[in-house]
Fold each of these.
Amino acid sequence: MFYSIKEVSEKLNLPSSKIRYYEKQGLIVNIKRSAGGIRQFDDHDIQWIFYISCFLKTGMKLADLRKIVELGMAGDSTLYQRMEILETHRVELQNRQKDLDLAKEALKHKLAYYKEKISN
């Protein structure tokens, strides 16, 4: 089954313009097109677009995503290299999460301090 860009946009709650941007950036490749040139996305494409969106939300660099795409096009012999990119990013996320947890705790303490001062 194929989906239009509008259907993919609605399914993933992403603007169509963002999906076209991903394609323009080389993150989505080999999209099928109808005889009239309309993009036709399959379930695999939708899953990949979902991953792209998630990875970018976490701060993954476009260059890293492009590298994953490039390696993917080279075949399964590059699975280890793709996994390394994702693992490096996972570690970076863990470190950022620790920093965010500390900042959140500081914010919580400061808010409690202000609430106590206001109530006195």
Amino acid sequence: MFERVEPDFLKAAGLAATIRVIKRLIDSGQNGELKWKLVVNRYKSTSKEQTALVERMRQQFGANFVQFTFGERVGLTDCLARGVPIWEYKGTPTEVGEAWRALPSALGLA
């Protein structure tokens, strides 16, 4: 299971509630094998508040925090509309394409 979160204080509060439920399921034995990861989406690196929040999440969630952060990109919407993977879409920065290609592995899916 993975949880996607936008780096916003209100959304982070909702995320905290979701993680409490997940931990309760694991700790109670109802789903002791449940694994989870946190992916930051729509990150604006120019925002000091978002940068600080992402760093706090990185420290707090450690191994459950996927090290890639995905910014807001028009190209992502465009490539989805055309049915083309973002790493093959013209104009996608190499590091963005590589991050998207590595995501399944980071989530333990590959």
Amino acid sequence: MHDGFGFGFGGFMWIFWILLILLVIWAVGAFRGGEPRATRRTPLQILEERYARGEIDKEEFERKRDDLRR
């Protein structure tokens, strides 16, 4: 039996399952961790962060920065 819109109860169940699957895919992508593609850092930004955290000294920073600019 149809309700006049071409969808029976089964049609709405298909829409429900499709929306549920899309919601799960979105949730996995959102909570997966990592950086979004638009915010990926450049090698120079990573180097600057390492220097700011004290992982490398000034001489190593400058040497690596010069290497990146070549």
Amino acid sequence: MRAPLLALPRAERHPILRRPPLDFEVINRAALHRLPEVLARLLPGGRIIGPEWHAGSLRGEPGDSLRVRMRGERAGRWADFATGEKGGDPISLAAAVAGTRQVEGARRLARMLGLEPMGGGR
């Protein structure tokens, strides 16, 4: 009688199904380099006011409750002053907008920036 197979996640049983690792630093750096474009896509109702992008909320409507720092040492940091949600980089913003975990936010942002991993990651 054969020993039962361990209950491994599907990706571990089939290495070809594993997603390549994401480099959060590279994705964040690329997003910061193109921050106005990224913010216009993530928060389409927003606008630039001084050094910040202002939007109504994570849904992206017009308003001033959500603010994202666009330049300087704090570029990419964001806060929604109505809800108390905040984050320190473009990946955390992308994840919050999509209502997903950081890793999925990184994947979405990488796709948006044309940084999809080599090898056909899903």
